[in-house]
Specification:
Low-confidence stretches: none
Radius of gyration: 19 Å
Number of domains: 2
Strand order of the largest sheet: 3-4-5
Distance between the termini: 42 Å
Structural class: alpha+beta
Helix content: 25-40%
Order of helices and strands: HEEEEEHEEHEEEHH
Shape: elongated
Length: about 160
């Protein structure tokens, strides 16, 4: 298990913060990236930059915890945009549909059997059938409203519902 990032010194932090572009909202990592996430050398080891930023500002990340990017920007390391989550909660705040989605809308699928759009959501690994719709827009609206009410970590849907 890697040691907590907190234990590393000021020189590590100085080099780290030089690679950050602080915009009005997101703090963008300008250094190395892997799959869109910033990667930083701290204490001679590679660490995910958003985890380092979070730990230096908020303290050690509990074992097994994930950090959810509330802004949906993988290169953002702004600790105010990060929150602790487990895999289930982190999945609730997904931004887009699955990569193999034919609809391009999260939770909306075409059903050949019915010849209509189907709206579904998964919570705690349990599927929830929301409805069958003639129009994709109606299915998208229904699933977004359902997620806003039933998925507390789905921030994008909460914003749409307001």
């Amino acid at each position: 298990m890697d040691p907590p990032i907190l234990k590393y010194g000021e020189s590590d932090q100085d080099r780290f913060w030089e690679k950050v572009n602080k915009t009005d909202s997101c703090w963008l990592w300008m250094g190395a990236k892997q799959n869109g996430y910033g990667v930083a050398r701290v204490g001679g080891r590679s660490h995910l930059a958003h985890r380092a930023s979070y730990e230096w500002v908020n303290g050690e990340i509990p074992a097994g915890a994930l950090l959810d990017h509330m802004c949906h920007n993988k290169s953002c390391i702004n600790p105010a945009h990060l929150r602790l989550a487990d895999a289930i909660l982190n999945g609730q705040n997904r931004f887009t549909s699955n990569s193999n989605s034919k609809s391009g809308v999260r939770g909306v699928y075409w059903c050949n059997t019915y010849g209509h759009w189907v709206a579904k959501a998964m919570v705690n690994r349990r599927p929830h059938h929301i409805g069958i719709f003639h129009e994709i827009d109606l299915a998208a609206q229904a699933v977004a409203e359902w997620r806003a009410e039933n998925m507390p970590y789905s921030l994008m849907d909460k914003r749409k519902a307001v």
